[in-house]
Amino acid sequence: MLKLTYTEGSFYLECLTLSLEEWVAQRVILALRVGQTLHFEPSTASFLLPVDLPGVERLKAEARRNDGEIIALSKSDAEYLEVTLRGSWLSDGSEDAVGVFVTTMSDRTEFFLHKLWQEAQVCASVVSE
Predict the structure, then answer these.
(1) Based on C-alpha coordinates, what's the Rg of the chain?
(2) Dist. CA 127–CA 122, nearest whole Å
(3) Tens of pLDDT along 27-44?
(4) Which residues, including other chains, have CB under 8 Å from residue 16's CB and lie 6 or more apart?
(5) Whole-number mean pLDDT of the chain?
(6) Chain-centre distance for alpha carbon 119
(7) What are phi and psi of 126, to 5 degrees?
(8) Distances from the Cα of 29 to the Cα of 5, 32, 34, 103, 117, angstroms
(9) Contact 100, 5 (CB under 8 A)
(10) What NCBIfam families does its record include (predicted)?
(11) Distance CA 116, CA 47 (A)
(12) Can you give the pLDDT at residue 124?
């Protein structure tokens, strides 16, 4: 399962070993215990990856083979590839874009996507230094 945590200024991508159902059940129980409002709805999430990252072509092939209904990859411009995922959005129901997006696809695609995102973060931090 992939979990994208959106904050006011950024997002963080994690690859979790829990099933989507297990993770949602834990979140619901936590929300009930602490009295937190929890909204859960089908949604999409998008982010950019540099097109020149090693492994992007392998991700494209893996996504086409196994996960075409869940992940869409499209060229954003000459430098970036837009990754769009179908899944579920969890939030407190407010209108701000703070919350958690979760989705499930093949383990291989999740692994490649998470690895590429991590590499993109390393490249971005090197450039900003």
Answers:
(1) 15
(2) 9
(3) 999 999 999 889 999 999
(4) 1, 2, 3, 23
(5) 88
(6) 15
(7) -65, -40
(8) 19, 5, 9, 19, 30
(9) yes
(10) alr0857_fam (NF045647)
(11) 12
(12) 61
